[in-house]
Design goal:
about 20% strand; 6 helices; 4-stranded antiparallel sheet; about 200 residues; alpha+beta
Length: about 200
């Protein structure tokens, strides 16, 4: 006699089997498979008019499925500088806090960290575009470090960088340097709004 758990799953399996065995169900599944494969191929095409036309329709579909890919990471000439952006948050009572981009665990964190790293990189690698992101970044840091009963008076966005040596050369990372990217002074009313 079948167990209780297999009896509970039977209606779901029966529905799946009916869909897979019906001509209409097979046609729908085949269409979804072909559309998915075309969209995946399209997103990996080099920049062209065909790619743009296919992705105009396919990009929302890929985003919904979580299959959107960006292979713009390939770097035949990799960056020779290690970068780190932090924000120094100063409160009206003279105390300070430091905000850094999140670093999650090695296993699943890489998937979440990628977007944070790209934002961090955008702040410093393209001065024209990056400078437009500096104020939103300082406001974000202020919102993350807000404390009840304390007003934020200033947020300073700092870049730390160090040269990376070629593979096999010791030490692999040179001395660290720091520069100020942006300083935002907040009036008490705008500091409260950042919370």
């Amino acid at each position: 006699m079948p167990s209780g758990s297999s009896q509970r799953r039977a209606p779901g399996l029966a529905l799946q089997r009916r869909i897979e065995e019906s001509p209409l169900g097979r046609g729908a599944l085949s269409t979804l498979l072909v559309v998915t494969l075309v969209a995946i191929v399209a997103i990996n095409l080099p920049g062209s008019d065909l790619r743009q036309q296919l992705l105009r329709v396919g990009q929302p579909y890929l985003n919904a499925l979580g299959l959107d890919q960006n292979w713009a990471l390939f770097a035949p000439d990799p960056r020779r500088v290690a970068i780190d952006v932090t924000a120094l948050v100063q409160f009206d009572d003279g105390s300070t806090a430091s905000w850094s981009f999140p670093h999650d665990g090695a296993l699943f964190g890489a998937y979440r960290d990628y977007r944070w790293r790209k934002w961090e990189e955008s702040l410093i690698t393209d001065p024209a575009a990056g400078s437009q992101l500096w104020e939103p970044a300082t406001l974000w840091a202020a919102s993350r470090e807000a404390r009840p009963g304390h007003s934020i008076s200033r947020v300073t966005l700092l870049e730390r960088y160090a040269s990376i040596a070629a593979p096999g050369v010791q030490p692999s990372v040179g001395p660290s340097r720091q520069r100020t990217l942006y300083t935002l002074s907040l009036a008490p009313a705008s500091a409260a709004a950042a919370r």
